[in-house]
Amino acid sequence: MALLQSVLAARTEVVADEAELLPVPVEEIEAALPDVEPEPVVEPPHVAWGPWQADDLLPGYEAREMRLVGLRRHPEEVDPDLGDDTLTATLVKRNKRRHPRAVLSIHGWNDYFFHTHVADWWDALGYDFYALDLRRYGRSLRPGLMGGYIENLADYDLEIDAAVRFVAKHHGSVVMTAHSTGGLTASLWAHRHPGALDGLVLNSPWIELQGSALVRALVPPLIRSLATRAATWPLPMPDNGFYARTIDAAQDGEWTYDPELKRNPSQPVRSGWLTAVTAGHEQVSSGLDIDCPILMVTSARSDFRRKWSDDLGRADTVLDVPRLAAQAHRLGRHLTLVRIEGAIHDVSLSHLDARTTYHDELRRWENAYLR
Questions:
Q1: Looking at per-residue confidence, does 7 or 68 come out higher?
Q2: CATH number of 148's domain
Q3: Domain count across the chain
Q4: SS3 90
Q5: Which of 60-74, 209-223, 260-274 has the lowest mean pLDDT?
Q6: Spatial separation of the C-alpha atoms in residues 55 and 58, rounded to whole Å
Q7: How many CA atoms are closer than 13 Å to the CA of 140, on its beta-carbon side?
Q8: pLDDT number for residue 35
């Protein structure tokens, strides 16, 4: 009996000790805490789609605004009437859906989509045609915004991702086509998004700087140094207007476009933007791994003379074509490179013979690799 009593007494002491360790009720803890305002919920950047409407620039086309929610304008873009959340992109389409496949077009610097004959080419190949006017360009350029400005080409992923998702939702196959700086942006995007595209068509993609090896080595660090101090400063980039002369129907070209959206001279080139471009060049130099077939089309030659000649209407007067060709193999393992005699920088806007060759090469490549 004495042993039983001692065991019971010990058990009672243990239970008492455990009771002291029981957690304090949550209600008591919350009552003891000071009142703290909850942190506001910040939405991650995303696209808010507007409705399809008749395009203001091209009869028979429709456009849909893509409001880029959660992105603030650059501090230099001062316009109190607009507020902060004013960045948009714009998706344009040729017609109602009628093909199982589709192509998405991305423009270059100081540009926007007006190339309706290219949309007709793709329609004849059996593709519904869409074009994307990126933020601060074309249909997406708003008052107070710095035309074309970006500080990282990967920032375009927001609108490109959304556009590709939309097109892929309605079509079983998506091809991307892009020109100049847009070609650099599209190449980097395709590298980061394996499996997203069935093909990539690059029209004079800006994948390398012009100039000698020494110039190409020195320029990027100089531009980066300047951008850290004054990213939005316009750089003194002379524009002789020769390229605009080769395409403008009012001069020596064949094409009519909105001069406010494709300016002559172009929008100011700013150091922050050029830093983003040269960073893209460095990525290409390191080697990309684009996993779909690539068609890259350029002019057969460049011409940078300072005095006007009709020969400038049959050459690339903007980029160094041999340097582009030398870098082409770094894009991916399945590349077709075509250099077209008589083509200008935007090969699709060349004289009839050169753009017909481009059309023929596009049709041949598409039939060989995308069917």
A1: 68
A2: 3.40.50.1820
A3: 1
A4: strand
A5: 209-223
A6: 6
A7: 30
A8: 62
